[in-house]
Amino acid sequence: MTTTIAERVIDFLGNLQGMDRLQTLIEEPRKAVIDLNTAAIIEADPKYPDGEILLYERANGAQSRIHTHKLIEQLFVRHASELAVTEGGTVKDQYTHISEHFYRKTGFGQ
Question: Please, which domain of life does this record's source organism belong to (predicted)?
Answer without folding.
Answer: Bacteria
